[in-house]
Amino acid sequence: MLNEFSRTQLLYGKDAMDKLSNCRIAVFGVGGVGGYVVEALVRSGIGAIDLIDDDKVCLTNINRQILATRKTVGKYKVDVAEARIAEISPKCHVRTYKTFYLPETQDQFDFTDYDYIVDAIDTVTGKLTIIENAKAANVPVISSMGAGNKVNPAAFEVADIYDTSICPLAKVMRRECRRRGIESLKVVYSKEKPIRPFEDMSISCRQHCICPPGTVHKCTERRDIPGSTAFVPSVVGLIIAGEIINDLTA
After folding, report:
1. Average pLDDT of the chain?
2. What is the CATH number of domain 13-249?
3. Against a cut of 0.85, is the pTM above it?
């Protein structure tokens, strides 16, 4: 019967689509990268998805985040994502967590519930905790490296963390994974050298913070506030989603 996923089924077949409809994916971080991961997974027929992010949509997200519009500014990203998923694939079962993922909050999640895990968060401690828990549960995980301060979407590639270079975040992750005995980790990263953002105080979040009321983790807490574009985080997110779908249907 013709349905919203018929064109995808022409490529993967019915058995693969049935498998995807029975998979649950956890997406940690639904911002610039994670929002596009969610979009592509849901449009690919994933049957259940957990969304983990405590952030609200900010005006400065509009340049790159698929969930960010004038109407959604101030709303929790996971709530916006859940509503959008319902418009695309009403049968997709969604669980939302307004949680900033760190070792202190990891007990809220049973990683054995998942068929695949996406790490699209920024904090190294949180990323490592996600990866360690995924490895312990024997669940595949894919991790996004640095997408900020980059302008070449064609430079991103899929690799094992130990085969990466140039990317500052990947360098830190290589060291920390080695310390923890993590033998392999699939990542999406770029060899493009990060651009140093202009120091323009007239548009600086440090001088003119507009985070929505109730925002717990403000960008002003960052050591550096990265620049970003519409076409880099989106490509990273779509690469990640493609890897997941191809892995699950292999």
Report:
1. 94
2. 3.40.50.720
3. yes
